[in-house]
Design brief:
The protein folds into 2 domains: 116 residues, D-Maltodextrin-Binding Protein, domain 2 (3-Layer(aba) Sandwich), CATH 3.40.190.10; 85 residues, D-Maltodextrin-Binding Protein, domain 2 (3-Layer(aba) Sandwich), CATH 3.40.190.10. By secondary structure, it is α/β, with parallel strands linked by helices. The chain is 34% helix and 31% strand. β2 and β3 form a beta hairpin. The chain is elongated, with a radius of gyration of 19 Å. Strands 2-3-1-4-11-5 form a 6-stranded mixed β-sheet, with helices on both faces. It contains 9 helices and 11 strands. It binds 1-O-pyrophosphono-5-O-phosphono-alpha-D-ribofuranose (PRP). The site of 1-O-pyrophosphono-5-O-phosphono-alpha-D-ribofuranose (PRP) has 12 residues, from β9 and α7.
């Protein structure tokens, strides 16, 4: 038998949602439930092992071919780009990219260059380029909502899921940028070398999401 198909899962919610799909397929994921601090885990009933990693690293591992496939959010894909196939929209991990400002702020008014804070500077840059607006972008690592409150930025480009974080901090969405959900990505060489196996798995995933 071939070495196991190695799939990188984004740790946390996407990992849990993927495991739920695998369990609906009938795979035994007890190694993931009982992982402790272990990071490479065999899946029972399939020639698969999963690797648990941070979102950006899922893409790095798949691009370099040390993992054959991965599950990662469209947000990370849009920010990092890269060379791999995006085969399936898994439909979970749904949220969206939006531009938000302080409630009632006239973001598009005036002629001064606006400052945007984001954990996703490339997504922010591409968006403002697409609407032909010059902005200054500041990279922030987390809790981006703080930036307009501290007057560092006029607006933020960030992920909105329920909208609670914005609401509780007096911010509001002024533009929707893009929908986000989890994607199944595959290394370009792996898809050639293990095409049948990957296609079979994709069929099973699609039937169980
Ligand atoms: C994300 C995002 C928002 C929040 C949106 O942050 O950056 O802050 O979730 O969710 P909501 O619309 O349901 O309130 P995350 O929790 O990943 O933490 P971070 O800000 O530290 O990155």
């Amino acid at each position: 038998m071939n070495r196991p198909l190695r799939i990188a899962l984004t740790k946390g919610r996407l990992e849990k949602d993927t495991v739920a799909v695998f369990e609906r397929i009938g795979y035994d994921c007890s190694s993931v439930h009982e992982k402790g601090r272990k990071l490479i885990l065999p899946i029972g009933g399939a020639n698969i092992e999963v690797v648990l990693a941070k979102a950006n690293d899922v893409i790095t591992y798949v691009e370099h071919g040390v993992c054959d496939a991965g599950v990662v959010g469209k947000d990370t894909i849009m920010e990092m780009q890269g060379k791999y196939f995006e085969l399936v929209d898994l439909g979970f991990g749904k949220c969206r990219f939006a531009l938000a400002t302080k409630k009632g702020a006239d973001f598009f008014g005036g002629y001064d260059i606006k400052t945007i804070a984001s954990k996703y500077p490339n997504v922010a840059r591409n968006y403002f380029e697409s609407i032909g607006m010059d902005v200054e972008i500041v990279k922030i690592e987390g809790s981006v909502e703080l930036a307009p409150l501290l007057e560092l930025a006029d607006g933020i480009v960030d992920i909105v899921e329920t909208g609670t974080t914005l609401k509780e901090n007096g911010l509001e969405v002024v533009r929707e940028i893009a929908p986000i959900s989890a994607r199944f990505i595959v290394n370009t060489v792996s898809l050639k070398l293990r095409q049948q196996e990957i296609e079979d798995l994709v069929k099973l995933i699609k039937a169980n999401i």
